[in-house]
């Protein structure tokens, strides 16, 4: 089988590693998959998944108040609280616009830490990282952007997103379904979309075009990318996921290469 991930060698980066996984684990990998690096906003996926565990065990509730007045845990997870990208003063009413917010995830982290009576880093380690044997993954600061991990570990996480073991399939389905239907907003680095669907921490592809995932991929594709040049997507219809980490910050170089690689992954592994 030809490996689409070999294209990473031609990318304008000094270092890159990637993996394609299915429900039973790794299908392909390239580069040093044990290389530990900052994953930036991919951190949000890990923290969101920890919140799903907390929901199932009764530590959190989606509709409990959190963040600005009128906002809930659901609003914070879905970037619909009205908080700006950075800053503590809301710029919209909860549920009015899809405003991608690092501050919102930091408020979410505070809510989780208070409810669980432990730090977000500790809860994440006990609820997600430990059970999935993600031994090189660590939260070193903000729950919005300060995670460190490897392709090896994130591949395990992506497999979990295809075949959940830590939460029920119904909980994951809810998390990867659009919250607050029809909200318009901005995907940082890409521009405005109307609508801009988002789940509980997971960006949803929907009808967004252009997008950083494969154009021909399922509208149900979900995942996230990070400003450190990282991405993780899951196509639940193709039953495939892809993780790539690089050492170059996101910029104009990234979207066409990410999309092209994602298309090649779907083409190659859909035939497997």
Tell me the layout of helices and strands.
Blueprint: E1 16-22, E2 25-30, E3 37-40, H1 43-57, H2 73-77, H3 102-116, H4 120-129, E4 138-139, E5 147-149, H5 151-162, H6 169-175, E6 185-187, E7 191-193, E8 203-204, E9 222-226, E10 230-235, E11 240-246, H7 254-270
Antiparallel strand pairs: 1-2, 1-11, 3-5, 4-5, 6-7, 8-9, 9-10, 10-11
Helix pairs in contact: 1-3, 1-4
Task: Describe the structure in brief.
This protein is of the alpha+beta class. It is 30% helix and 18% strand. The longest helix is centred in the last third of the chain and has 17 residues.
What does this structure look like?
By secondary structure, this protein is α+β, with helices and mostly antiparallel strands. The chain has seven helices and eleven strands. The strands form three sheets. The chain has a six-stranded antiparallel beta sheet, sandwiched between helices. A three-stranded antiparallel beta sheet has the order 3-5-4. Helix 1 packs parallel to helix 3 (102-116) and helix 1 packs across helix 4. The model has no long low-confidence stretch (mean pLDDT 97).
């Amino acid at each position: 089988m030809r490996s689409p991930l070999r294209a990473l060698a031609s990318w304008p980066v000094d270092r890159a590693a990637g993996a394609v996984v299915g429900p039973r684990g790794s299908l392909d990998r390239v580069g040093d998959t044990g290389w530990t690096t900052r994953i930036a906003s991919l951190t949000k996926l890990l923290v969101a998944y920890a919140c799903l565990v907390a929901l199932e065990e009764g530590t959190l509730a989606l509709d409990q108040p959190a963040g600005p007045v009128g906002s809930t845990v659901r609003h914070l997870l879905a970037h619909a609280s009205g908080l700006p990208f950075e800053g503590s003063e809301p710029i919209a009413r909860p549920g009015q616009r899809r405003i991608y917010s690092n501050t919102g995830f930091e408020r979410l982290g505070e809510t989780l830490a208070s409810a669980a009576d432990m730090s977000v880093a500790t809860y994440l380690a006990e609820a997600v990282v430990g059970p999935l044997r993600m031994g090189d993954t660590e939260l070193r600061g903000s729950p919005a952007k300060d995670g460190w991990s490897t392709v090896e570990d994130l591949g395990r996480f992506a497999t979990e997103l295809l075949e959940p073991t830590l939460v029920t399939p119904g909980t994951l389905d809810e998390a990867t379904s659009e919250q607050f239907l029809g909200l318009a907003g901005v995907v940082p680095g890409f521009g405005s979309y109307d609508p801009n669907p988002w789940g509980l921490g997971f960006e949803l592809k929907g009808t967004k075009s252009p997008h950083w995932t494969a154009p021909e991929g399922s509208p149900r594709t979900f995942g996230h990318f990070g400003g450190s040049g990282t991405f993780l997507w899951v196509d639940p219809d193709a039953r495939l996921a892809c993780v790539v980490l690089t050492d170059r910050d996101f910029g104009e170089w990234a979207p066409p290469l990410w999309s092209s690689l994602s298309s090649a992954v779907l083409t190659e592994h859909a035939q497997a």
